[in-house]
Specification:
Blueprint lengths: L9 E6 L10 H7 L4 H19 L9 E2 L5 E2 L4 E8 L2 E8 L3 E10 L7 H5 L2 H7 L8 H20 L8 E6 L4 E6 L8 E9 L2 E9 L2
Antiparallel strand pairs: 1-5, 2-3, 4-5, 6-10, 7-8, 8-9, 9-10
């Protein structure tokens, strides 16, 4: 489903069944250490999706390692993003000559756990929730949007971005969202993205194309 949120310049791959998750390369397996079974499955499936997406650009299969903030390290001239949640794993990649940055996120379509909304959402965002249309767990969607924002932000800046550093506004009619960034970084002041709620999932995506 994630492909429905992405422009044609971006290739994606997704899995709903971990039994089809492929295998890790030795260099990737070494990153997991003593990780539990669920963490191993989601990591393996995410890397499998990433290699599937990369193959559409003719990139030979190779290890996708991890950077200092646990972000995937992509081949030269590639930008991308990986996400996983219960029952869904996906990756999206693009050529750096065409795509500046990508951020994707998947979440279960459920309310955020008690107390989490107060931590991840600001006053204006919580106020909007009180008048938002019924039928969608908008608190979870805003959380997902902020996850996508961070994944798009970090490759551009190499800097941490907290939940309170982004104010997300949602347009339910168009299936889009915008994020205003409250940081001192003049080169990146905000992002726009798209969202989808279907099959028990909340999906958000940002793909910023080059001019």
């Amino acid at each position: 489903m994630i492909e429905r949120l992405l422009p044609p310049q971006v290739a994606s791959s997704a899995l709903r069944d971990d039994d089809l998750a492929g295998r890790l390369l030795p260099e990737e397996a070494a990153l997991l250490g003593r990780a539990c079974g669920e963490r191993q499955r989601e990591f393996t499936a995410g890397r499998h999706c990433a290699r599937q997406a990369l193959s559409r650009f003719g990139v030979e299969p190779g290890p996708i390692l991890r950077g200092p903030r646990r972000e995937p390290v992509w081949p030269a001239e590639i930008v991308g993003s990986i996400t996983h949640c219960r029952g869904y794993r996906a990756a999206a990649v693009g050529r750096a000559t065409e795509v500046k940055t990508i951020g994707i996120d998947a979440e279960p379509h459920e309310p955020l756990p008690a107390g989490v909304a107060n931590y991840v959402l600001g006053d204006a965002e919580r106020a909007w929730l009180t008048r938002a249309p019924a039928g969608i767990h908008w608190d979870r969607l805003m959380f997902s949007a902020k996850e996508s924002v961070y994944k798009a932000w970090f490759p551009l800046t190499g800097k941490w971005l907290g939940f309170d550093d982004a104010i997300v506004s949602v347009d339910p009619d168009t299936g889009t969202f915008a994020a205003e960034l409250l940081t001192a970084c003049r080169s990146v002041t905000g992002f726009s993205g798209r969202f989808l709620v279907a099959d028990g999932l909340v999906l958000t995506a940002i793909a910023e194309l080059r001019a």
